[in-house]
């Protein structure tokens, strides 16, 4: 009787060991699959934010180039100096080119082959480019805006002046919103690494 019980116990023990090994193998497979899915989710999130930044840069580039079309007619219709019209053209062309260069820089980042470290470096470079471009555009835009407001104040048309001020405030608000969303996308990419 003791021998049968020992044999039963040994069989039960062997069966439990086999089941444990089977469960352990399934857990290993599931952990590997879970790791793969986590990496895929992170990679898709990074791709999504990168595409949002690219679309944003493209939209800003298009808006800048469209703005060029009204610069010279506006200066002519308001009897502003022609050099001011050409300065506005240069400002918007430069803004369009800068935003396009940001878009092209992002499109050159191949997420399929780049390491997390290199992606972090690329994002730091992108952030530096954005800062430089904002400084350049600010240094050009503020004097142009002040000259524009001064020239409009010479007309004596108060509504025209306040309309220009309102336009400047609205433009600044949009710029701050766009900058905030871009910073949020960049931060999300960095946090995903």
Query: How big a fraction of the residues is strand?
Result: under 5%
Number of helices: 4
Could you describe the largest sheet, including whether it forms a barrel?
none
Radius of gyration: 30 Å
Q: Based on helices, strands and strand pairing, what is the structural class?
A: mainly alpha
The beta-strand count equals 0
Spans with pLDDT under 50 lasting ≥5 residues?
Answer: none
The termini sit apart by 63 Å
How would you describe the shape? rod-shaped
What's the number of domains?
1
Q: Percent range for helical residues? A: over 70%
Average pLDDT across residues? 88
* N-to-C series of helices and strands: HHHH
Attribute tags:
193 residues; mainly alpha; rod-shaped
Per-chain topology:
Blueprint: H1 2-77, H2 82-107, H3 116-155, H4 158-192
Helix pairs in contact: 1-2, 1-4, 2-3, 3-4
Description of the molecule:
The protein has 193 residues and is mainly α. It has one domain (2-192). The protein contains four helices and no strands. Helix 1 packs antiparallel against helix 2 and helix 2 runs antiparallel to helix 3 (116-155). The mean pLDDT is 88.
Quickly describe the structure.
The protein is mainly alpha-helical and 193 residues long. Helix content is 92%, strand content 0%.
């Amino acid at each position: 009787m003791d021998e049968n019980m020992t044999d039963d116990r040994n069989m039960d023990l062997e069966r439990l060991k086999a089941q444990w090994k089977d469960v352990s193998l399934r857990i290993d497979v599931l952990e590997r699959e879970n790791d793969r899915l986590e990496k895929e989710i992170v990679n898709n999130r990074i791709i999504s934010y990168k595409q949002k930044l690219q679309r944003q840069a493209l939209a800003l580039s298009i808006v800048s180039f469209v703005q060029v079309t009204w610069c010279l007619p506006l200066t002519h219709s308001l009897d502003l100096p022609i050099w001011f019209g050409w300065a506005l053209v240069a400002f918007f062309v430069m803004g369009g080119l800068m935003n396009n260069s940001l878009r092209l820089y992002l499109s050159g980042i191949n997420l399929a082959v780049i390491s997390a470290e290199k992606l972090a470096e690329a994002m730091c470079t992108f952030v530096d480019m954005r800062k430089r471009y904002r400084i350049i555009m600010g240094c050009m835009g503020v004097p142009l805006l002040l000259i524009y407001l001064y020239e409009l104040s010479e007309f004596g048309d108060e509504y025209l002046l306040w309309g220009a001020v309102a336009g400047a405030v609205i433009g600044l608000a949009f710029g701050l919103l766009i900058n905030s969303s871009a910073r949020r996308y960049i931060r999300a990419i960095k946090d995903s690494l």
